[in-house]
Design brief:
Layout lengths: L1 E4 L15 E11 L8 E19 L5 E13 L9 E15 L3 E5 L2 E6 L7 H5 L2 E9 L4 E8 L5 E8 L7
Length: about 170
């Protein structure tokens, strides 16, 4: 994944709406490590545009702060015809953050989604639900651990755990 800020403010204290607009791109591949030739069984391409501000509100000691993100994302497997799979959604993501004294942050960030132009997958919301529940713990310039939970209808649910390390810290 990467994000690119569309407009860089001349004055860092300028909090104009446009100064928080980003382009983003994520690509994921599901790898079958138990298959005969270890194939990738699914690849997804996810471009998007979003607005994000880390601290709309902070308490006096800046230990608690509330952020917000909102955007539009497209997701596709990059195939055509009968193998094609794509969907679009708009989202709103409030982020409640707690800053620890030791230099790490705990974030609870539910992403509320509304799907549109999903003619190929008009029942997708039944499988993935409309909310991604995310809990994230991030050290300053260190490890980032993220848990994600999705609940669709009936027994359709998904749990994902990610660990990341910043490349700039790798010698």
């Amino acid at each position: 994944s990467f994000k690119y800020r569309l407009f860089s403010p001349v004055d860092p204290a300028d909090t104009s709406f446009i100064n928080h607009l980003y382009l983003g791109y994520t690509q994921t591949a599901v790898w079958d490590l138990h298959g005969d030739s270890y194939p990738f069984v699914d690849t997804s391409y996810k471009p998007g545009i979003f607005w994000r501000k880390d601290a709309l509100f902070q308490n006096d000691n800046k230990q608690w702060f509330l952020g917000m993100a909102a955007g539009v994302q497209h997701e596709s497997n990059g195939k055509g015809g009968d193998d094609s799979r794509s969907l679009n959604y708009a989202y709103l993501q409030p982020e409640l953050n707690y800053r620890f004294n030791g230099g790490s942050t705990l974030t609870f960030a539910p992403r509320i989604k509304s799907y549109f132009h999903v003619s190929e997958n008009n029942d997708y919301h039944r499988y993935a639900g409309n909310v991604d529940w995310q809990l994230r713990w991030a050290q300053d310039d260190g490890v980032v651990l993220t848990g994600l939970y999705r609940q669709g209808s009936k027994d359709r649910r998904m749990t994902q755990i990610d660990a990341a390390w910043p490349l700039r810290r790798t010698p």
